[in-house]
Amino acid sequence: MVREIIVIGSGAAGITAASYARKTDPDAKITVFTEDTDIAYSPCAIPWAVEGKIAWENVVMHTPEHYSEKKNIDVLTQTKADFVDSSAKTVAAGGKTYRYDSLVIATGGKVFIPPINGVGLDGVFAVRTVQDGKRIQSYLRDVKEVAVCGAGTIGLEMASTFLDLGKEVMVIEMMDQVIPRIADKDMADRIQKYLEERGARFVLNAPVQAVIGTGKVRGVTAGDNNYPCEMVIFATGVRANTDIPKQLNFDIGQLGGVIVSPSLQPYRRGRIVPDIFVAGDVIQFESAVMPGPTMSQLGSTAVRQGAVAGANAAGGNAMYGPIASPWVSVIGEKEIAGTGLSLGLASWYGVTAVSGKAEGLTRARYYPGATEMIVKVLADAASHRLIGAQIIAGEGATGRIDWITSAIVSGMTAEDFLVRAENAYCPSTSMVKDVVISAVEDLCGKLK
Amino acid sequence: MVREIIVIGSGAAGITAASYARKTDPDAKITVFTEDTDIAYSPCAIPWAVEGKIAWENVVMHTPEHYSEKKNIDVLTQTKADFVDSSAKTVAAGGKTYRYDSLVIATGGKVFIPPINGVGLDGVFAVRTVQDGKRIQSYLRDVKEVAVCGAGTIGLEMASTFLDLGKEVMVIEMMDQVIPRIADKDMADRIQKYLEERGARFVLNAPVQAVIGTGKVRGVTAGDNNYPCEMVIFATGVRANTDIPKQLNFDIGQLGGVIVSPSLQPYRRGRIVPDIFVAGDVIQFESAVMPGPTMSQLGSTAVRQGAVAGANAAGGNAMYGPIASPWVSVIGEKEIAGTGLSLGLASWYGVTAVSGKAEGLTRARYYPGATEMIVKVLADAASHRLIGAQIIAGEGATGRIDWITSAIVSGMTAEDFLVRAENAYCPSTSMVKDVVISAVEDLCGKLK
Questions:
Q1: Least CB–CB distance from B320: residue in A299, A419, A436
Q2: Are B364 and A45 inside 8 Å of each other by CB?
Q3: How far apart are CA B365 and CA B391, in angstroms?
Q4: Which of B58, B423, B434, B444 to substitute to test the interface with A, most A CBs within 10 Å?
Q5: Mean per-residue pLDDT, A111-117
Q6: Contact B328/A426, CB-based, under 8 Å?
Q7: Strands (E), B77-215
Q8: How far apart are CA B248 and CA B81, in angstroms?
Q9: Best residue of B54, B410, B422, B431 to probe chain A, by most A CBs closer than 10 Å
Q10: What local confidence, expressed as pLDDT, does residue A10 receive?
Q11: What are the pLDDT digits (tens) for A193-203?
């Protein structure tokens, strides 16, 4: 009997699940349903595609035809999965009913747009799909002033894109810093300053209250002030899209995501649900840093979860581990990366954090192209275990944050790290003692 | 009583030791002896300085005056320490005798030049000091053909420099591959091919037998053939400079380096020698990968050892840990980096290694500037522990090799790595699943 596998969702988790299901079971019948028009693209590429640095046709890596021909996977686009019956093992989608042996739910996240007046006006956009991006690019042509609501990484990447395109840019954020939650204020302030130097204006501590205009956008109200603009971008975060999990009565966790086992199976009233796997932005998972849940909502996390869910849906026995969620964002000429807990997240877990910091360069001082690098590392004051880090640099932040992530997930203390950590050195790729090690040295001093 | 600290050697280990001694004891009298003319420079910068990409005055980071004025450290250049009396606690240098309370020996390595005919001819050079580099640069002007003896990283970096300067380049190596010992043949062959495409010729399996010429170089003999050239560069490796340790009857290890404790103190007939610390290219140390000794001879290692030796010489209590020795070399547009054991080193430790490999890109496929990246990872067939890795890429190899190093030194198995490893992702800095993770995935398949 051929195994029938259905995947709901064609984002990073869903498409990877389908591919790994195929790797695990060459004979299975695999069908993917998606509401989207395009599949297998990286939403993270949208800011650069809007700017014209990448062609839209390159953002979309593969077409449904590719999956059909190369992997024998049917991808049905613009086909919403409306209803799942986990007893009958069927999915209702696009007016038809399909049966499954195993099901992967990778419904991702929904852009959160605050329930305020004016969000339906022409000139209001979210940043999630390729279609969103193309509409932004097209509307932008006749626009001088753009307001970006939400100063997270996507918001700031879009702000940087608009500055490059010669627009006047205002960023509105309800918290008292940019990149709230995952970055500390001292690090975030440097990115804000960098964008201010390029001409962006920031309105902090100001929730967006309304979009103003008739027919099309003429301004926004935030923190009781009105700001004129012709276009509004909502980058106010993503909420887990739990419509189907809720309909199936799956247990939802403290952070609003589906609770899953290490095999990525959901629970219903505390019992594992057989034959269903959930992956990507829709789940929450154990933190690798502290006991307790975390929500990653990163493309890289979704891909790794999709691989586990897909393999298991096809009869495999893959396991998923606790996560530290390293991230990196490129904002103009600056890379900002982080991993594990920020000071804010540490306090959420009830941890008292101690921080160390060092400034240096990405290459030897004398080597052309060296850029400034600032590394901040956090440890738990009680155990001295490394719990987080943030880096701002002109290059090379990604590998270094992956390095610190590896130390965090293996439970290393700051002192252990200092004794054991080594860095490869060549004048054109690092300082002889990498700034990461100097930051941990500073941290160890603070922990004494 | 003011503590008197003497440091012998002004390379990465010696100068760092002096600086950390000063940090640890603000009042100590600190004196550094060096045979060299210049101090506090990175020999790793020489290939780029010869090429003119870096000015010589920038390669030398600080002068003796800087150390005297800013750190109250006396650096005596061109002053050879001839003799140490560890009973009287004195050093004879430059015709005078100095007493010490504690002594740091950081005499580094001696360039190994094979004992063959013709090495005294004009046009024969080593690559170790700034003076070597300046002499090479000056002699090079009237030269068309250069032979580089030794295809290690320094030899290939020099070869690439000579190609950039329009010279004809021949590389002579006694082993059957370039970058022997620390790189595997399959990876090294790619670097060889890259240099061949740029015009370099390689003569492998051919020990250099003689330099030919009268007065000045006219050719070399290698593998019983004569090759015409006007200049010969010896990059045939570095041997621990153990003149003083041997004179002091310190125990020398299997690899020819001074054996030291984690406090970096030497042994004499198995007993710790008090008040003396040894650091840098002159020592061997425990491997972090397998039980047994290793020799790092890297600038980054020397700096970390210098910090420990200097702090301890000033009354501190710092400890040095086992080492994996990550390294990176930039050869034209290629970075090649490695860590832990190569196949050859694994066999030296009696380990059966299994390897996994993946090819991909340093950025998202569609992002401008993405370069090819090849990652090879090695595990111990018995325990499945990660024991080594090598990366070739156009960018970003350093941080990634530091990442894998961290996993190796924490004793992670390949399977653990696959469950726990995460990578930060942004289209301009990595693929959504980093090639490192794909390589470990391949490795796990091989280990099954």
A1: A419
A2: yes
A3: 18
A4: B423
A5: 93
A6: yes
A7: 81-85, 90-93, 96-99, 102-105, 109-111, 124-126, 145-149, 168-172, 201-203, 208-214
A8: 13
A9: B422
A10: 94
A11: 999 999 999 99
Decide: A316 and A306 in contact? Cβ < 8 Å: no
In chain B, the residue whose alpha carbon lies closest to the alpha carbon of A59 is B366
Contact B264, B310 (CB under 8 A): no
Structural domain boundaries of chain A?
4-44+53-109+239-313, 113-236, 333-447
Question: B324 and A424 in contact by Cβ < 8 A?
Answer: no
Rounded distance, CA B377 to CA B445, Å?
A: 12
List the CATH code of the domain at B113-236.
3.50.50.60
Q: What is the ipTM of this complex?
A: 0.90
**Ordered alpha helix ranges (H), B184-270:** 185-197, 243-247
Q: Do A300 and B398 touch (CB under 8 A)?
A: no
Strand B271-272 to strand B267-268: parallel, antiparallel, or no bridges (unpaired)? antiparallel
> Does the annotation mark A44 as catalytic?
yes
Q: Are B240 and B257 in contact (CB under 8 A)?
A: yes
Q: How far is CA A97 from the centre of its chain?
A: 33
| Integer Cα distance of A385 and A192 in angstroms | 30
Cross-chain Cβ contact A365/B58 below 8 Å: yes
> Rounded to an integer, what distance in angstroms lies between the CA atom of residue A1 and that of residue B6?
80
B-chain CB neighbours of A426 within 8 Å are 44, 328-330, 335, 398
Identify whether the C-beta of residue B220 lies closer than 8 Å to the C-beta of residue B208: yes
**What is A4-44+53-109+239-313's CATH topology?**
FAD/NAD(P)-binding domain (3.50.50)
Task: Tell me the average pLDDT across B255-283.
Answer: 97
Q: pTM higher than 0.90 for the full model?
A: yes
Number of cross-chain residue pairs from A and B with Cβ atoms under 8 Å apart: 215
Q: How far apart are CA B265 and CA B259, in angstroms?
A: 8
Q: Which residues of A421-437 are buried (b: 16+ CB within 10 A; e: fewer)?
A: bbbbbbbbbbbbbbbbb
- Work out the pLDDT band at B1, boundaries 50, 70, 90: confident
- H or E segment and range at residue A442: helix A435-447
In the CATH scheme, what is the homologous superfamily, with its name and number, of domain B4-35+59-109+239-313? FAD/NAD(P)-binding domain (3.50.50.60)
Contacts of B427 in chain A (CB under 8 A): 42, 44-45, 48, 54
Do residue B328 and residue A430 have CB atoms under 8 angstroms apart? yes
